[in-house]
Amino acid sequence: MESKRKDRIGRVVSNKMDKTVVVAVETRRRHPLYKKTIKRTIKHKAHDEKNECRLEDIVRIVETRPLSRQKRWRVAEIISKGTVVEVKPEEITLPEIE
Fold this sequence. Notes:
Elements: E1 7-14, E2 20-30, E3 37-47, E4 58-63, E5 73-80
Parallel strand pairs: 3-5
Antiparallel strand pairs: 1-2, 1-4, 2-3, 4-5
């Protein structure tokens, strides 16, 4: 039997919480009257048991039972790792004003 759970693919926008990530899921729809494509972004809080997700990762999340007041999703798999460049404050140089 096929699973009735919804699944979405999105991008991790925050991983500051313990065992929780915020995933932004982007959907595109056509406006029924004006026929313009509208981009809609919804943020879901998802359970990440092993704290493996990092910023900018592309993940697949699956609907699950309520895990907390706001968590109804869990991370099923990490599709691709994101590349975030970390810059220390000492490495930033400001241009000199003449």
